[in-house]
Amino acid sequence: MSSVVHLVRHGEVDNPDQVVYADLAGFGLSDMGRRQATWASAHLAAHPITAVYASPLDRARETAHAIALPHGLEPLVLPEVTEWALMCRWAGLPWADLDIHFPGELGAYLRDPVALDFAPESVTELALRVGRAVDDLADRHPGQEVVVVSHQDPIQAARLQLTGRHLGRLHKDKPRHCEVISLARSEGWRQASRVAPTEAGRTTRTTTDF
């Protein structure tokens, strides 16, 4: 029987100044983000979830709490799935001002995330960090379904690494807020489904039965 890890990006953040919030405290969910978390909770309520894990950051823990509630669970903090250290390099700066303080870095990140000599943590290191955490959870919960609430780039990097795809695809079809990416492991990892909230309800992008 497959172990299933549902990777969920946190809901939209209350960030009126459009800063890089990275690992800064005090950035919780917006009203839209709370609605998205409620959607993810409802989507996963029918699944036999045995544990919910979250990045230690406020937005992830708030999202995880909503998802855990229907299952009578308390989210567990998993530091290994926290934000990419590259974002922490830019923390607190408006996205629009990054080129003033770190000339060329945002453009390099968007062009080729694999070749960033200024990053305190490479995308390969990020993928291995989060991928190992997901693999460990599958070992810890054999044949069960668990949820991990994390962040956009960490989820994307781990998804690519675990399913054998190149990390140069980091910016291709990234997870949206509260999108549920379900990975199943038997002999290896496969992406079983992707479902994301929309204003009108939900959109299923890829679906395979577990």
Set down the secondary structure blueprint.
Layout: E1 3-9, H1 31-44, E2 49-54, H2 58-68, E3 76-77, H3 85-89, H4 98-101, H5 105-111, H6 123-140, E4 145-150, H7 152-162, E5 180-185, E6 189-198, E7 201-207
Parallel strand pairs: 1-4, 2-3, 2-4
Antiparallel strand pairs: 1-5, 5-6, 6-7
Helix pairs in contact: 1-2, 6-7
Gist of the model:
The protein is α/β, with parallel strands linked by helices.
**Regarding CATH, which class?**
Alpha Beta
Count of discrete alpha- or pi-helical segments spanning 4 or more residues = 7
Give the strand tally. 7
Q: Please give the radius of gyration in angstroms.
A: 16 Å
Features of the shown structure:
Rossmann fold; alpha/beta; seven-stranded mixed beta sheet
Give an overview of the whole structure.
This protein is an alpha/beta fold and 210 residues long. The chain has a single domain, classed as Rossmann fold (3-Layer(aba) Sandwich). Helix content is 33%, strand content 21%. It contains seven helices and seven strands, in the order βαβαβααααβαβββ. It has helices spanning 31-44, 58-68, 85-89, 98-101, 105-111, 123-140, 152-162, and strands spanning 3-9, 49-54, 76-77, 145-150, 180-185, 189-198, 201-207. It has a seven-stranded mixed beta sheet. α1 (31-44) packs parallel to α2 and α6 (123-140) packs across α7. It is globular and about 50 Å long.
